[in-house]
Every structure is written in C-alpha cells, then in structure tokens.
Amino acid sequence: MRPKIYLFGDSITESSFTYGGWGASLAHHFSRTVDVVLRGYSGYNTRWAVKVMERVLPAANGESESERERVSTIAVTVFFGANDACLPDRCGAFQHVPLHEYKHNLHSIVSFLKNRWPNTLVLLITPPPIDEEARLKHPYVENPTGLPERTNEAAGAYAKACIEVAGECGLPVVDLWTKMQQLADWKTAYLSDGLHLNETGNRVVFEEVVMKLKTEGLSLENLPVDLPMISEIDPNDPLKAFEG
Amino acid sequence: MRPKIYLFGDSITESSFTYGGWGASLAHHFSRTVDVVLRGYSGYNTRWAVKVMERVLPAANGESESERERVSTIAVTVFFGANDACLPDRCGAFQHVPLHEYKHNLHSIVSFLKNRWPNTLVLLITPPPIDEEARLKHPYVENPTGLPERTNEAAGAYAKACIEVAGECGLPVVDLWTKMQQLADWKTAYLSDGLHLNETGNRVVFEEVVMKLKTEGLSLENLPVDLPMISEIDPNDPLKAFEG
C-alpha cells in the first residue's frame, strides 16, 4: 500500500491543486511513491479545524485498519492561521480566533495526530504575509470601512505563535511569513490577492515542504517505488521485472 | 470517508499532476468531494498492467475493508494503448502488444475492476493521436533508423479497439484519438513531443473526463461535500454548522 501525505488546512490548502499549486506539485514530485491527499477547507480557522479533525482524518474502524493507517500515513501538513488572524473588529471577525486559543488549538491538532499516528511526521506551516492594500482591492465580503480585514502585523504574530508551538512539540515548521518577506517585492511576487498564493508563491511552499520532508528522511531517495520503473525493465525480457 | 477516483494508466497518467495536468485539474475540480488517486506507470502497456493490477489497486484485507473500498471507489480511468501501439519492428518494440492481445488485456482489466468493485464506473480512454515527425525529434531511446517508433495509424487502430471493448462491456469511453484530430493543428495544439500532452491537451482530457463522469451521475451537483462550505457557515454563530 502506498503511503500518504495529508494536506490539512484552509483555502491555501484547498486551492493547492490549481495550476502550479503546491499540492499538485507535491503529488507530481511523489507520483510513484506517495499519495498526496487534499483536506483543505476554505475559510476555516483552527477552532473549526479542531471540531472537524476526527471526521477529516480517517477514522480507525477496528484494529487492523488502524494499524494499516498508522503505517501508511507518513506525514501531515497543518497549515492554519491566515483566518484565525482576521482582526476581531473588522469584516472578517467571525473567522477570528484569539492568539492564545490559536496556539492551544494547534496543540490540540498536533496531539490528535500524534495520538492517532505516533510515527507520522507533523509539519506545521505558518500563515503567509499579508498585503493590506491588495486585501482592500479583493474583499470577500462587503467591506465599506476602508480598513483591511487582515494586517501583516497580525499574520506575523500568528506565524510566531505557530513557530512556538512547533518548538514546544519538537516539530519542523515552514516559516512562510518570514521566508516570503525576504524578497523585497513579496507582495506582487508571491500573492494574488494579498493573501492567497500565485504560482510563484505556490512554488515557494512546494520547495519548502519538500526540503523539510527531506530533512526528516522523507524523500525520493528514501521512499520505495511500488513497481518497476521503465528504466529497470529489461527490453529483452520485460516480464521478468514483474515476477515474484 | 471521501470517495476515490483512481487514474490507472501509463506516462500520460503518471505525468497528469504536472502544471495544468488533467489529474491535478480533476483533483482541483473535486477538491471538497473526491480523492483523485494517481496510479500512472511510465512506459507500461496493458500486458504489464494486467500483471500488476492486483498490487496497484487496493487489496481487500478482510471483508469490512473490502466493503468500505467497494463503496468508496466511485470511478477508475483506464488509459492504456499508447505503448501497446509501438510498432513491433521499431525501437519501441519491447513495449509493443499485438492488437488482439491489447483488447483481451483491456477486457481483463475491466473484469478485474468490475469484480472488485461492481458499482464503480470504469471509464476507458483511448491513446492520443501521434505526430510522427515530432516523435523523431524526441526519441526516448537511440533511434538511428529514421523511422518513428509509433505511427498515428497504429495509434488509431488501438483507439478503435479500445472503443470496441467499451462497447462490448457497456462502458463509457473518451475517444481522445478522434477528439484531438478534430482540430486542424492538433499536432502542435495538444502534443508536446508527438505523444505526450501539453497543457491544452491536458485540458481536453480533463474536460472530456469531467463530461463523461457527469453523464454517469458523478458531478459536483451530485457528490456530497464532507464538511460545511464557508458560505453555509452563519457568521453570527459559526459553530452551529459543526454540531451533530
């Protein structure tokens, strides 16, 4: 059975199989070795994620299946915070989760995953930086206030909290907020609407995730291919490759 | 548990999660409803596919899992023939499968799938047309003969055989060979190397597959979403959506 990597997150995960998306790129990268399973939920914050995680990630119907899943799920990316970081007094207030609760919820998600699959790599990803001017140009709900529903400063606070949780749990983390801002024109280079990722931004997430997985021993060099590659098939006796 | 669509085929399936690939587009299309599972094997023909299908598609470890898989696999695309159609006296000869055996092998694959999952939709896809000049420019193995390893005429014979098998089994089929050639400049419009699909060619496969699935009742209108969409969440009482 081919191992799985679950992508659990919000809209930046849900849209990750669009053109050049980081999820699709992962699936392509691991096309002969791993199933990349999409579990992205647009608009969700960690409060809602905690409510649904039992349903989102495969329930164990009896011991043998539980055992099987434990073996086969090699990694889960947890990518929340962009919605939690909506400001509590702006038009995205219903998605807001206070910073201390965000940390607590991330801990709950990690505990749940570690309890279900003790040997599975949990990889946290911080929210991306926010381009506030672009958020005003691309509102999701009516926003006559002239104030963006998210700020880059708030996103940074949630990113920092995410990194703290990773440290407290001994987990790897992709610090997307910092990584992206290392480029001077990050607002246009990586973002499509001040929040979501364009093709280049998706590329950054893909590369960072592949690098972290590799550091943790999950790479094309280490993961078995389930069936012979064409290069391993003897042109003079092709069927030999499929014996036994 | 979210239903699955398996993509079983050769390199045109294996590479379907690349930029704008038809597999990635399907996964994006069904991002909240279906898991699209990649089972593409570069270079494989139906003779090899028959040898590996038991291992490729999930084995049933006991009745309860078998039951679960039967319910959850809603469709399988079977997309072979491009390698079978390699000419027997050219440089791709080791991949060649005679036409009558190709038909027999497709029947075997369909029987296997129908036996494993009686209610699962099996969707056949014919090989694409071949641009012979482009094949000479993009050889996979040394080819000093000046003759392409595949011809469009041979691909057409395998496409016709695939359609016949679909008819004999009462299955839907995407006739890619004919569909693509309806465009005058199909060679450059759809193909990257005379055989594999460029982005526009991938788009054609995606659209044809979505249309066939829809005709068979598998569409966004009919498939349940596993968790509330953001539009269904009451901003004044978000948690209500997650009760029960």
Automatic annotation (TrEMBL), chains A, B:
Entry similarity comment: Belongs to the 'GDSL' lipolytic enzyme family.
Q: Domain of life here?
A: Eukaryota
Gene Ontology biological process terms, A to Z: lipid catabolic process
Q: Which Gene3D superfamilies match?
A: SGNH hydrolase (3.40.50.1110)
- Quote the InterPro entries the UniProt record gives: GDSL, Iah1-like, SGNH_hydro_sf
Keywords tagged on the record:
Hydrolase, Lipid degradation, Lipid metabolism
Q: Name one Pfam family in it.
A: Lipase_GDSL
Gene Ontology MF terms in the entry: hydrolase activity, acting on ester bonds
Q: Does the keyword Hydrolase apply?
A: yes
The protein in question is named Uncharacterized protein
Q: What is the lineage of its organism?
A: Eukaryota, Viridiplantae, Streptophyta, Embryophyta, Tracheophyta
Q: Indicate yes or no for the key word Hydrolase.
A: yes
